[in-house]
Write a structure and sequence with these properties.
alpha/beta, D-Maltodextrin-Binding Protein, domain 2, 16 helices, about 15% strand
Length: about 400
């Protein structure tokens, strides 16, 4: 799907709110209970999810599909007449799509609690809440014709499966890259450019505005403080968590912008207000298209990242249509359309034959070595997942700490 740069900017403006991925500090505590654990009969700290039946065979399409999705994931031509994969889906299946756009993972969880929706495009910071809350059902991947084509490193991950059982189909993903102004500093090889008080970026650092950013501090400490013995940046005990929070507090004077809307970050980098910090590749693409001197890199420590999964509601009224949608949205041509419109790597590498030249190279599609260096978002819970037991810090405390860090 080809688009000019101007069309791309227009598209991004139309979906400017789409990536408020996690609750911001101002509203974090209002949903802390849901973030930390139970909802609708389950707990994210439980040993096993509630017993929710898995669909065994497809029936006759019910004629309707109700989705909760990020803006840009279910385009029907209303934002751009040339961007439409919903109408062809309806023509092929008879399932009329009704989409409720959610701009945060917390909103998605709350909407799914109502039982009014058939499926959701959940990020890793919401999926465990949905699974252990009994809000989504295990997915029978045998009913999805394109499942075998999905990149292996996106399957059976701790944010989309439990004990080898998938709870959805991977959709798209990306890295939280280090972006920097090439006129202000040489190419950084480490994240110390955002953590070191003597960094050339000091006073001009940009950071992601969410409690989940604590994981970025933990990622840095994992490499530079081996005495902390951090193995999973989302499974932090008190000592590890406190060290990450302290690092963020030391960083605070050097941060000139916390961002949730990537367009805000984009403008600051273009103006030269930001020198270095966390960004998505699409932000860099738009900046360089406007001739801003920026570049991205994946530092020696690796990076955090996000991976979205289409999940089926445990109360779906139109389950066959939902399975039809999951199969449709993972076909190569549709994956190419979504990836280029949204600015992400497609989960199905076969999409690359339909993307613009160089697109998949920029997003490292089909590069397992690159993505093994990422720590994809997942909801922090008390259960450490190892012999420490329930001694890890849950998201409630992450949210509380984030408010203190920002001040």
């Amino acid at each position: 799907m080809a688009r000019t740069r101007n069309a791309t900017v227009t598209a991004r403006s139309a979906v400017r709110a789409r990536r408020s991925r996690t609750v911001l500090a101002a509203g974090a505590l209002s949903t802390a209970a849901a973030l930390a654990g139970g909802c609708s009969g389950g707990s994210a700290d439980a040993a096993t999810p509630p017993d929710v039946p898995m669909m065994q065979q497809l029936g006759t399409p019910e004629g309707r599909l109700d989705l909760v999705a990020w803006t840009g994931y279910a385009e029907d031509g209303s934002n751009d007449k040339h961007v439409n994969w919903v109408t062809p889906f309806t023509k092929a299946t008879g399932c009329r799509v009704h989409t409720k756009v959610a701009d945060t993972s917390d909103s998605m969880v709350e909407l799914m609690k109502t039982g009014q929706y058939d499926g959701v495009s959940a990020s890793g910071d919401a999926s465990l809440r949905l699974i252990y809350g009994g809000l989504v059902a295990p997915v029978n991947t045998g009913l999805l014709g394109n499942y075998d084509d999905i990149a292996g490193y996106l399957k059976n991950q701790p944010y989309n499966s439990v004990s080898g059982q998938m709870y959805g189909v991977p959709h798209g993903y990306g890295a939280n890259m280090l972006m920097y102004r090439t006129d202000k500093m040489p190419r950084p090889t480490s994240w110390n450019v955002v953590w070191d008080t003597n960094s050339p970026a000091a006073g001009h650092v940009v950071a992601y505005d969410s409690p989940i950013y604590i994981a970025d501090a933990a990622l840095y400490l994992k490499a530079h403080r081996p005495d902390l013995k951090i193995t999973d940046v989302y499974e932090l005990d008190d000592e590890q968590f406190n060290a990450a929070v302290e690092l963020l507090k030391r960083q605070r004077p050097n941060v000139n912008q916390y961002w949730a809307n990537y367009l805000d970050e984009l403008q600051s980098f273009k103006s030269g207000y930001n020198y270095a910090g966390t960004a998505w590749q699409v932000t860099a693409n738009l900046a360089t298209a406007d001739l801003a001197p920026v570049a991205t890199t994946l530092p020696s420590e690796g990076a955090t990242g996000w991976s979205d999964t289409w999940m089926v509601s445990s109360k779906a009224q139109h389950p066959t249509c939902m399975y039809k949608w999951m199969n449709w949205i993972t076909t190569p041509k549709v994956q190419a359309q979504v990836a280029q419109w949204f600015g992400e790597a497609p989960a199905n590498p076969k999409a690359c034959q339909y993307t613009d030249r160089g697109f998949c190279s920029v997003y490292h599609v089909g590069d397992p070595v690159f993505y093994k260096r990422l720590a994809f978002w997942k909801t922090p819970v008390k259960n450490c997942g190892d012999d420490r037991g329930n001694k890890c810090v849950d998201y409630t405390r992450w949210a509380q700490a984030w408010m203190q860090i920002k001040g």
